[in-house]
What we know:
Layout: E1 3-17, E2 22-24, E3 28-29, E4 33-49, E5 52-69, H1 74-81, E6 84-85, E7 91-92, E8 102-110, E9 115-125, E10 145-150, E11 160-164, H2 174-177
Antiparallel strand pairs: 1-2, 1-3, 1-8, 4-5, 5-10, 6-7, 8-9, 9-10, 9-11
Amino acid sequence: xxxxxxxxxxxxxxxxxxxxxxxxxxxxxxxxxxxxxxxxxxxxxxxxxxxxxxxxxxxxxxxxxxxxxxxxxxxxxxxxxxxxxxxxxxxxxxxxxxxxxxxxxxxxxxxxxxxxxxxxxxxxxxxxxxxxxxxxxxxxxxxxxxxxxxxxxxxxxxxxxxxxxxxxxxxxxxxxxxxxxxxxxxxxxxxx
Length: 192
C-alpha cells in the first residue's frame, strides 16, 4: 500500500559504534515533521574488457536525508547541530561545532490504515539555511529544512530498518514500543 502521510519523528544520539557495541540514547520526539525524504546513492564501478562491460560492482555510497519541520527550537539546534546553549538564552554557533551522529525513527501512514515504521541508523545533519521574509499582505510560513548524510554502522553494517504494522511478524504492540529505543533487528531463521 502506498504512503499517504507522515506522523511521528524521533531522533536518538548514537553513543557507541564499533565491532562489538552499538548503543544509542533514548529516542527524543521532534515535533512538527512535514516531510521526510530518504535518497540512497549507489556507486557502480565497471570493468571493461573485449569492448564491453565485463564485470560491475555496486555498493552503497551514502544516504541523503532531508527533513522539513514546522519549527526547530534552539534546544533542538543544540542537540542536533552541536550548537552551545547560552546563559542569556538561545544558542550560539562556532566554527568548532561538532554535529553528533544520530539515528532517525519515524512513522508513515499507509493508504490501508496501517503504518510503516523506519529507522535510519547513523547520520549527521548539516546546518540548515536561515531565511525570513515579510508578510506582503499575507502569511507565508517559513519553516526549516535539514539535510544530512547517513551511512551504515560499523557494528553490523545496517543503515535502515523498516517494518509495516501489517507485516506477518510485526509485534502487536509496535505503536507503543517502536519509539522507546532504537531497534536492532536480527535475521529471521526459517526452519524447513
